[in-house]
Amino acid sequence: MNHGLWDRETVALMLLISVMPLALTWLWYGGLDAAGLLVLALIISGFWHVIFMLARAQPPSFAGALTALAIAMLAPEDLSILQLVLGISFGSVMAELVFGGWGRNVLNPATVTLAFLGFGFVTAPWPEPPLPLAWAAIPAALLGALFGVMPARVIAGAVIVIGGAHIAGLPIAPLLPAVAVVLVLLVADPVASASTKLGGWLNGAFFGALIILFALGWKSAAPVQMAVSAALLTSLAAPLLDEAAIALWLVQRRRRHG
Questions:
Q1: What is the pTM of this model?
Q2: GO:BP terms for this protein (predicted)?
């Protein structure tokens, strides 16, 4: 991820700029509690980046701030500092830093952290994003796509599937604020999402399909819990979707050229 000015830190910085409408709206509604949680997440994430910088000469990344923001916005509530330290440490180290840092990871570290916290501390309630966050996610997604740092096909694929389900009358309206935030912060990760053209469309559509499936069959889960679970499964499926896209392209190429 290095081409002239467009190295990985430029991409991470542009991603941070893109999500500013979302971050500022969340801080406006969350107040001092939200700001304190974000500072804590930044400290924990930054600590591990410094450790790996010293141990492996691995430079820290602006992506650590993206991870901290996503965790602060979406993590289950009423967790102790120790629980947050365990979750953020596990996600940052095992999902990102051990692979050589952001840009070389397979899964989004914030997604892994949130899944760890959700599965490990099942009694902690999930947050309920207010509706303005869903509206703030729209300019964030548009900026990310305009800058070329968020996969537009992934976003479009998810919007088409989820929008079609909403128009069809399926009961997904209560999930939309959480889905919008998760789509921008977790699913539209340029590293952890599918990289082929067809794979990108399939990636977004798969996320949307999982949201519909969970909305219809997982009645006991909170909206953020459903969206984070769908994001995790989508990230795990992304390499397979790319493989399917490449295989289909090869079949078409053989038919065309013999």
A1: 0.94
A2: transmembrane transport
